[in-house]
Predict the 3D structure of the following.
Amino acid sequence: MEIKNASAGTLESGDIFVQIGPSTTGGVTIDLDSTVALQFGDQIKRVIADTLQELNVTGVEVKATDKGALDCTIRARVTAAAVRATGVDVWK
């Protein structure tokens, strides 16, 4: 699967900005910058990783800038970025 650079989300409060690009290592790498990283950083990374796994997306680097997004918002933003990066429409 070819991975292009793509993004979804905003930097507004309660949202998350997700950038996805091809990985040089072949795995999934998640770089998280969050205002709530100490309390929820592991959970945010888990939601991102689980969403990518459900979409069968591997070989990507994810840069996420979180501003207090809920899990449902994180899943939606990761899904949108993954669809844009892969060209595979999961909503059909």
About this structure: Helices lie at 37-54, 71-86.
